[in-house]
Amino acid sequence: MSARKAVPAKRRPLKNTHKKRKNLQWNMLLYIAGQTPKTVRALANLRRICDEHLAGLYSIEVIDLLVKPRLAKGAQILAVPTLVRHLPAPMRKIIGDMSNTEAVLVGLDLRKRG
Amino acid sequence: MVTRRKLALPSPLRKAPTGILRKALTGVPGFDEITGGGLPKGRCSLICGSAGTGKTLFAMHFLAYAARELNEPVVYFTFEETAEELAMNLASIGHDISSLVSKKKMLVEHVYLDRSEVIDGGEYDLDGLFVRLGAAIDQIGAKRLVLDTLEVLFASLPNEAILRAELRRLFRWLKDRGITTLITAERGQGALTRYGIEEYVSDCVVLLDHQVLDEITTRRLRVVKYRGSSHATNEFPFLIDDRGFSVFPIGIGLDHGASSERRSTGIERLDTIFGDRGYFKGSSILISGTAGTGKSTLSAWMASAACRRGERCLYFAFEESRDQIVRNMRSIGNDMAPFLQNGTLRILASRSSLHGLEMHLVTMANAIREFKPELVILDPISNFIAAGTTTEVKSMLTRLIDMLKHQEITGIFTSLTFGGSALELTETTISSLMDTWMMVRTYEHDGERNRGLMIVKSRGMRHSNQVREFIMNDKGIELVDVYLGSSGVLMGSARVDRGAREGQDKRGLTQEFEKRRRAIEHKRLATEAQIRVLQASLESDSAEMLQAQKASDERMADDDSTRQRIAAMRTADTLRSVRRNRRLARKESR
To answer: ipTM surpassing 0.85, yes or no?
Structure first.
């Protein structure tokens, strides 16, 4: 299994992303530790939500910490699965199997918190 | 038969038999003695306490000792401070973390999770932390691990139920890997920790706290629980100073040796009092007395005497500063400055109210451990009453004396007796701890105060029972015999006066005798003269008598011849013929 499984997504040049709100790009990293039911569930849930709301605007990179354990330190990962949203800023961490759709939508800035 | 039971604290050096819990030395002075060898090896221990009780410091001691002394690589996971902050904070108390890190003996990792960044997206586990721990441990082959305030996770991660389950799994996992782990936690209300994690970490729990009594803080450490091992259960005072963390175990026991070597006090007459040879090495000496009786002077004098012999002396002053002592002692011809310079003498001055008794004890113990003196002076111990109760003072002194005796260090303790109270009363609480008790007291007589020194007791040696006058002048200390008589104890000028008077009396006596001798001589001469006069008169009398006799004889002869002439003239019988006639008549009558 490769360390980073690039999920194909329609990408636009990065420099354009902050010009317009409409052209925002969702860059996300999903940290997992091996293929567990939780991991599989998380990825499936995430894909479903993203495809529904962010079709063509997102990229998800899956990082398996069992393979690249040093990456956990830099990203300050404790819990898995953790989805780190780097863009749009500010950085957000969504922890869990993404079963809480409302929370994930808030985390992706697609819905106001609360 | 009664066997003596020792208050046995298992020696940390005793090797645990296989099958019995193995222990990991912490290197914290005192703690390893209390627990009989440190924390349980390969298991999780918890150290809890409220803010600022020294949890992090203890944990760092535990790691740094292993990394430096045992050559065991260690891992430190900090959840609160960054590695840089930690290094900076601990550098001030003598831990050079960065050098250990650069030697790959220690790995410090900062774990940080901001609650505001985190969104609860459902079920999770802590595999991320497991991976990081595993990676760090494997990277340097660590044997020990510290998780400094793991409970921070409760604040930054959602879903407490999952977190609890995960922590339980974490401890299990660490145990399985055989990592000796120490977890720190904040003290909670009514519980040992805020989130009750002592429930999961059940092998060893150490509690730190500080007690404030009369505005004086004492830090205390207690081993709440130690599964599979005996441990001391008392609250032990501990100290955090520039050398780090140290615990002072209570009660070392009465199994010390006793030296019969003697040491001079530096005052000849005082040595004489102690059977000519001074005090025992390693004994405890109490000098008590009222204010201004020269207790400090006496102890400083003994300190100088020890330094002159080349013995190291540690002087704890609780009333005067170092310079003040040196200046004052110079006034009686005791120059301590050279000893301070050549390092045989060290004076540590502090106020007794500066910190609690236990802290004093630990400070002194550390200073003694470091300086390795042969003579320790506490001047005065009565000031400690201000920092604790009599019982506490006694408990502290007992431990200090035990410690001194174990190392054959002589202890001199001065104690101030208050003017009003009975001289021997206040010391009764501590006098039983002392081998030798000198009492200096003042005697008031004829409008002056004079100092008198006596030995109340001195174990194991013949000693004088006589009160001596204790005199301090610019040449030093002198002990002088006092006058004890019907008029009481005479000291000072009364003693001098008495001495003078005695001289006078002696002179008077000789004069008197001389006078009487002369008078008798005179009388004798007079009598002799009289005898001569009488003799002369006797002689003249007898001469006169002879003359008179002669004269009378002559006269009688004259008379006879005259009568004979007359008789002849009258032709009367001569006397001779009369007598012849009478004789003839008597013959005829027969």
So the answer is: no
Secondary structure (DSSP) of B391-433:
HHHHHHHHHHHHHHHHTT-EEEEEEEPPTTS-TTTTTHHHHTT
Nearest beta carbon to residue A100 from set B120, B128, B130 = B120
In this structure, which amino acid lies at residue A2?
A: S
- DSSP letter string, A28-47: EEEEESSS-HHHHHHHHHHH
The string over B342-371, giving b where at least 16 C-beta atoms fall within 10 Å of a residue's C-beta and e elsewhere, is: eebbbbebeebeebbbbbbbbbbbbebeee
B475 within 8 A of B467, measured Cβ to Cβ: no
- The amino acid present at B449, given as its one-letter code, is R
Contact B38, B32 (CB under 8 A): yes
**Each residue of B251-280: pLDDT tens digit?**
556 667 788 888 888 888 888 888 778 888
Q: Are B436 and B459 in contact (CB under 8 A)?
A: yes
A contacts of B129 (beta carbons < 8 Å): 78-79
In this complex, is the C-beta atom of A72 within 8 Å of any C-beta atom belonging to chain B?
yes
Q: What is the pLDDT of residues B196-218, one digit of tens each?
A: 888 887 789 999 988 877 666 77
Interface contacts (A, B; CB < 8 Å): 104
Is the Cβ of B131 closer than 8 Å to some Cβ of chain A? yes
Nearest to B131 by CA among A45, A36, A6, A85: A36
Q: Tens of pLDDT along B404-450?
A: 888 889 999 988 876 555 555 555 567 788 888 888 888 777 788 88
Task: Mark yes or no for CB contact B111/A76 under 8 Å.
Answer: yes
CB A85 within 8 A of CB A75: no
| Range 4-63 of A in CB contact (< 8 A) with B | 31, 33-34, 38, 42, 45
Of B109, B124, B128, the CB nearest to A96: B124
Distance CA A64, CA B208 (A): 41
Distance CA A19, CA B558 (A): 200
